[in-house]
Design a protein that fits this description.
The structure is a homodimer. Helix content of chain A is about 25%, strand content about 40%. In chain A, helix 4 (about 130-140) links the parallel strand 6 (about 110-120) and strand 7 (about 145-150). Chain A has helices at about 45-50, 60-75, 105-110, 130-140, 155-160, and strands at about 1-10, 15-25, 35, 80-85, 90-100, 110-120, 145-150, 165-175. Chain A has five helices and eight strands; from the N terminus they run βββααββαβαβαβ. In chain A, the strands form two sheets. Chain A has a five-stranded mixed sheet. Chain A has a two-stranded antiparallel sheet with strand order 1-2. Chain A is α+β, with helices and mostly antiparallel strands. The interface between A and B is large, with 61 and 61 residues. Strand 8 of chain A pairs antiparallel with strand 5 of chain B.
């Protein structure tokens, strides 16, 4: 939102009209809701609690978290988890991940797989999900992927269409537990 | 009682891991039956093979070789994704399943899918998933899969 202030000042017998346009912090301001990579200290900022809003996410010990973090970090650009932190509360309010699959088809091509997108229930309607998805898709493209794919419920189809995705195939699952 | 060699005999159609020499056995030609698969040089193949081999159990490609022709007639891959959800759980992703058009009806696809799903389970995955066309749904249901969500895609090229 932009505020415009008008003022008139008299200087040296002349009148000057001042127009000041103030760019207030917008709810989607880049500084307020910057997307960055997950850091090992994010466990303290509610990362796991956020994931609980997505699906079953049993608490893990600090060791388990750090081990998993380091495993994923070792993949470098091939596995990126991003987050958005609320600067005021220092809590993680959005997250998503993408990993890069290397194939033989498509001239030894690569495909990005987006997973685990979640936006905190108190932070909906701020386009944070779109920011996260775009960040991950851009990362996949920058590493040379020819496409990026994801699975979602029918309810979420419209959201991903707004992110530039199109429905393609069906997902099938076999559970072991 | 004579036990004749059966078309699905374990010896004739054994599932094994992809080997670096499989480029000479028609691996890329088989993949062409699945989708766009431009020829690659031996170097490109070997580089990709070594990259995938470095992932160890986290990325596994399997094949079935016809012992008579020494040609590959089926293949599939599974990679293991590590998550934070589900108690730092793991999910297997099955990809690129293809059976040679001349070798259909021998349950080779099912052998490949079962091999990959078993591998995912053995590495501790809580589930294994894949995407497929509606036409192939019945095949995967026979392999014990159930339809769950929809796949969405964004192409860059």
């Amino acid at each position: 939102m932009t505020q415009t202030l008008f003022g008139i000042e008299k200087l040296n017998h002349k009148y000057f009209l001042f127009i000041v346009m103030q760019n207030n912090k917008d709810s989607t301001d880049d500084e307020t809701y910057r997307v960055r990579k997950l850091e090992i200290t994010d466990k303290k900022k509610g990362f796991m609690e956020l994931l609980q809003q997505l699906t079953i996410c049993d608490p893990v010990t600090d060791d388990e978290f750090q081990n998993r973090f380091k495993e994923l970090e070792s993949y470098g650009d091939d596995h990126v988890i991003c987050v958005i932190e609320n600067a005021t509360s220092s809590k993680i309010i959005a997250t998503g991940s993408v990993f890069i699959e290397k194939k033989f088809i498509r001239s030894c091509g690569k495909v990005g797989h987006i997973e685990d997108i979640v936006v905190d229930s108190s932070a909906r309607g701020l386009q944070l999900g779109k920011k996260v998805v775009n960040f991950l898709a851009d990362h996949a493209r920058s590493t040379g992927c020819y496409k990026v794919i994801l699975d979602c419920s029918a309810d979420n189809k419209a959201f991903y269409e707004k992110c530039g995705f199109k429905e393609k195939e069906i997902q099938m699952v076999k559970y072991f537990v």
